[in-house]
């Protein structure tokens, strides 16, 4: 069950003003929510450092005209299919495809899949984004 | 048309050995490909610094039981629908959803969409990943 | 004058527990202090994005046996001496020197100095660290 | 002894043009040097991931009027003096001091020193910068 705790934070009023202005620029309507986001982002980073089960997205852009590339990328995905939850394919223009995969596993396993896809010849750009299963980040 | 240029790079042999070991660990089969990836990643960073038209993915995780959250997130996406190319929704567990959006526009516009989604109360974690249209990154 | 403001933050108790464990591992003795640090770090990032007057440190490592390198690095520093507050030189081993410069100016100016030093042939590694004048970060 | 190896890299001519323009903006006079820097920066990141002996700089800004703060920061430095090679102190203005320490040891040890200093109440901003002993980065 969800149990909210309330606690007090002391801040210099200048620091608080600056922070309020910053988060307003980022469209936050609520100071607690902005602080929770800072806290959660730190915890997610820690989750990855500790190599716990977590979730990441792998984004990569490639030219589908490159001979054999689509087949190679599919093969890699099949090899790691127990880790890959889902994928989306977007046609950016006549030549370029973008794929995003949602991958669940230990941080180190997700990195292996990501390295293999991004290292494939013909992939023009790729990035692994560390996110979370959401559990424990109430 | 694609025109390949070949040029020489001089490296100390220790540095080259270390690099070859590093990229083997990252599953590269080819040194040129690894160098091209380093170069392209630098160019993509620059593309974003200059606020040119580019592509990003926005990943966010939330608890769909939070009252009214799904509706709010959908509203934001409709407001920016001219920028959002595509979206994917994954059910991580009984409570948690992950969404990834592929967004195309100026870097600053993509950041606005991202700030608004990630700042929404109830979104537990979010990240903007800067990638590219692929154009000019031959 | 320093005026402290106190305000309440609501957090789920699981999230708070996780955060308390994380900051204990980072040697914080005080939750408010940890939150202030997260807030200040965000504000410093913003200060640099806005190109305001700020402070950075430039760290670089080089082999002082490389012909003419020391002279080149000194020349660059003299050209930008109005920005450079101070410098420190450490002998890492028989060959390698590390220098750290403390630089004050607009973010873009500090980046120019940093690019020029780090781009000099013979500099093996260099990094610009964004920090702050401390003003307004009460 | 230093032994240079020369090898060829193939790049599309558009990609090469874009890279040449990018590195010219960063004041590189030489394409090989720019590539070596990309390679070395990757190797340094890896050195830290593997927790080998390495070098970092710890930068922190604080208000020296905060009661007892200077003493606390000095105490921490003495506790870790076997790791700290050197330090520099800069007076930023009437209130604010910046210190940079050059620290040598395993990455994890350097992080401990950094966490303890940056977590001290009254330190307004701090950053650990990962660099290198220079060895093996010929």
Description:
The structure is a homotetramer. Chain A folds into 2 domains: about 35 residues; about 80 residues, 2-Layer Sandwich (Alpha-Beta Plaits), CATH 3.30.70.1150. Helix content of chain A is about 40%, strand content about 35%. Chain A starts with a strand and ends in an 8-residue tail after the last strand. The longest helix of chain A is centred in the first third of the chain and has 19 residues. The mean pLDDT of chain A is about 90. In chain A, strand 3 and strand 4 form a beta hairpin. In chain A, strands 3-4-2-5 form a 4-stranded antiparallel β-sheet. The first copy, chain A, is of the alpha+beta class. Chain A is elongated and about 60 Å long. Chains C and D meet through helix 2, strand 2, strand 3, strand 4 and helix 4 of C and helix 2, strand 2, strand 3, strand 4 and helix 4 of D.
């Amino acid at each position: 069950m969800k149990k909210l705790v309330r606690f007090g934070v002391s801040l210099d009023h200048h620091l608080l003003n600056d922070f309020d202005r910053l988060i307003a620029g980022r469209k936050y309507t609520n100071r607690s929510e902005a602080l929770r986001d800072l806290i959660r982002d730190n915890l997610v980073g820690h989750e990855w450092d500790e190599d716990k089960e977590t979730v990441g997205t792998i984004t990569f852009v490639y030219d589908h005209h490159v001979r054999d590339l689509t087949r190679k990328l599919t093969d890699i995905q099949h090899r790691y299919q127990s880790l890959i939850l889902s994928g989306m394919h977007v046609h950016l223009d006549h030549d370029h495809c973008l794929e995003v995969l949602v991958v669940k596993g230990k941080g180190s396993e997700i990195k292996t899949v990501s390295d293999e896809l991004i290292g494939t010849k013909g992939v023009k750009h790729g990035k692994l984004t560390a996110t979370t299963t959401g559990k424990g980040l109430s």
